[in-house]
Amino acid sequence: MHILDSLLAFSAYFFIGVAMVIIFLFIYSKLHRTTNGNYQKQ
Fold it and tell me: Which residue ranges traverse the bilayer (predicted)?
């Protein structure tokens, strides 16, 4: 059962990391789009 516990902890940390990266990219793109509006139209 130790492998299952470590796998659960790893998946939890991985999920938290992915969520943080997605939130960071969302906020960064939002700020980037507001600073220069017509630059992202491609």
Answer: 6-28
Instruction: Tabulate helix, strand, coil % of the chain (nearest 5).
Output: 90, 0, 10
Query: Exposed, middle or buried, 29 (CB in 10 Å: 0-12/13-18/19+)?
Result: exposed
| Cβ pair 30, 23 in contact under 8 A | no
Is the pTM for the entire model greater than 0.70? no
* pLDDT tens for each residue of 1-42: 689 999 999 999 999 999 999 999 999 998 887 666 555 555
